[in-house]
Amino acid sequence: MTSDEARALYERLKSEAEGAGYFLNPDVDFVLDLMAGLLTNEERYGYQACPCRLAEGVREKDLDIICPCDYRDPDLDEYGACYCALYVSEEIALGQKEVEPVPERRGTEPEPVGEEQEEPLVGFTRSGMPVWRCKVCGYLCARPQPPLKCPICKVDRDRFERFAWP
Fold first, then answer.
1. Shortest CA distance to 32 belongs to which of 12, 51, 7?
2. DSSP bridge pairs for 87
3. Which of 11, 18, 73, 155 has the greatest CB tally within 10 Å of its CB?
4. Helices then strands (H, E): number in the chain?
5. How do the residues of the chain divide into helix, strand and coil, expressed in percent and rounded to 5?
């Protein structure tokens, strides 16, 4: 892994983040160190596990911490940054607020218990995850909360509604 590879990954993730309404940490040197960690984990495990967490090296066990991790949006919503501070709020990106420590969420949610439902519940997937619909463009996603920004039309979270199955 070279610094050119880290820079190329940074440019790609920055473009993807901005295209989806997200922001990367404005401290480029810090972010390049995270890029090096992501690339190291990709070499080591075959996937870009969060460089700030211990990966098990088994993709199925680490799905929740493959960048961007499952905890990014809840962390951004509550703390203004994800656990490793790669993704930050607009206020932090603009220098209006400082990054603060984010507590670890991994392993704090209970594991699902019991069999999956045979038929989906109204407004939920079979796993019980709510389905959200962007009222502007119709984008659908199954997750605990709607995204902070619609990845299609870039409207804010408040433009989402819980989707009901026909």
1. 7
2. 24
3. 73
4. 5, 5
5. 35, 15, 55
CA of 49: how far to CAs of 37, 44, 106, 149, in Å?
Answer: 9, 10, 13, 23
Whether cis (ω within 30° of 0) applies to the bond prior to 147 is no
Given strand 160-162, what is the order of strands in its sheet? 140-142, 131-134, 160-162
- How many Cα atoms are found within 13 Å in the side-chain-facing hemisphere of 63? 2
Say what the pTM is. Answer: 0.74
User: What are the CA-CA distances from residue 100 to residues 78, 95, 107 (Å)?
Assistant: 11, 13, 21
| Residue range 3-93 in CATH 3.40.50.300 | no
Bridge partners of 152, per DSSP, are none
Q: How does pLDDT run across 54-95, given as a tens digit for each residue? A: 999 999 999 999 999 989 989 999 999 999 999 999 999 999
Position 120 scores a pLDDT of: 46
Residue type, 32: L
CATH fold label, 118-166: Rubrerythrin, domain 2 (2.20.28)
d(CA 46, CA 55): 12
Residue whose entry in the numeric block shows the structure tokens 């119709």: 138
